[in-house]
Structures are given as C-alpha cells and as structure tokens.
Amino acid sequence: MSGFDKVVTSYEEAMEGLTDGMTVIAGGFGLCGIPEGLIGQIKTMGVKDLTVVSNNCGVDGFGLGILLEDRQIRKMVSSYVGENALFEKQLLANELEVELTPQGTLAEKMRAGGAGIPAFYTATGYGTPVGEGKEVKEFDGRPYILEESITGDFAIVKAWKADRYGNCIYRHTARNFNPMAATAGKITVVEVEEIVEAGELDPAQTHTPGIYVDRVIKGSFEKRIERKVLAKEER
After folding, report:
1. Can you give the CATH number for the domain in which 191 is found?
2. How far apart are CA 30 and CA 55, in angstroms?
3. Residue 98: domain span
4. pLDDT tens across 84-136, in order?
C-alpha cells in the first residue's frame, strides 16, 4: 500500500493492530450490510475483552454472534438483541455486559463521535431506565437527557463499492449504520463487494468520503437472511 492507495489484500493486514480490550464499532442492520470477513478475522485472531458497538449482535453462528462463542465480547452496546440465543444465555448468566440504547440514539452517538461532538441532548429515553442517572435539561418546556457520543479503536463497515482511495457507496438498508460507523473509528476498515478505480464513483453519490477510511479490502459475502417469512398459498 503506497500513497493514497488504501487497498489491502489480506484480512490479517486489514485488522492489524486490533488487541484485547479495544472498542470495535461495527456497521450493519440485522444481517444486512455486515462486514462478514472482518468479523471472521476477529474470531480467528482470538482477541478478548472487546467492547462491540453495533445495532445488534448477529445470530447464533453468524455475524457478530460468532464472537460470543469463545466469549470474545465483554460488553455489547446495541439496540436489538432478540435473534441470538447464546447472547441471551450469556446476558442472563452475567457473562456479558449489555448497554441497550435506542436505535436512533445509537446512530447519532456514532455520527456525533465522528463529527467530534462529545455529547448531545435527546428526548428519547427520558423517564425510562435508559435515562436513569443522566443529566436532564429542558428546552421549550420539554425534558431532554444528555447522551455521550461514541468512538472506537476500530470501525468495521461493509460497502457496495469503493475506490482505492476509500470513497464508499452503500446500498439500501446497509446505509442505516455503516456511514455513521465509518466516521467513528480511529482506524476504519471497509470490506467491499467491488473495488473500482479512482474517478469511477460519482462524487455526488459518495456516502463516505475516503478521508474517514484507512483500509479497504475486497470480500465475498454470504448475505444470509435473519428470518424468512413466506406468504401462505391461497387455497
């Protein structure tokens, strides 16, 4: 890798520098838009005591769920945890610390962290366990709680296309968390379906500018579906 070329050719190089106790921010929404290969590399590395920030923790045996198998995650900051039986088991056994965060608040925590904003006020969570112990301030007669932003040692994201400079485009639901996560890591690694040459991406359509990205790797993806719901045949 030389100059502004951010492409790496191995997952070992992509996740170089990740060590025990670090915070990893992971993009994805359910199993949509998750960096499958980067998650697999974290499992292979065997790093422990991780704090993982992501909308959810995958499912049993896939996505971030594979990191629970060897208890690599110490703390999970997420919004939805209902698709993973091992997650539930470790939570109830006090083997996993969990910080549940409203979905929009979690997205804004990432975005604010990437923008250098240390905290922000939101009405979401006021008067619930989410707001307990947090500073409250009124604006126009409505109470808001103070939420701190989030940054991580690593951010791992999945994009549809990226150029060699790290400029990224996401598709559809993969835009829910990946763009915010990409800005919030000290080291941001993008796993991408297709790498194109500089100048091929329309600047007006670029979702994440390459200034936020440190490493780009081309991956292959299973794109598993969490839960299939099929319509019943009419008789």
Report:
1. 3.40.1080.10
2. 7
3. 11-118+149-218
4. 899 999 999 999 999 999 999 999 999 999 999 999 999 999 999 999 999 99
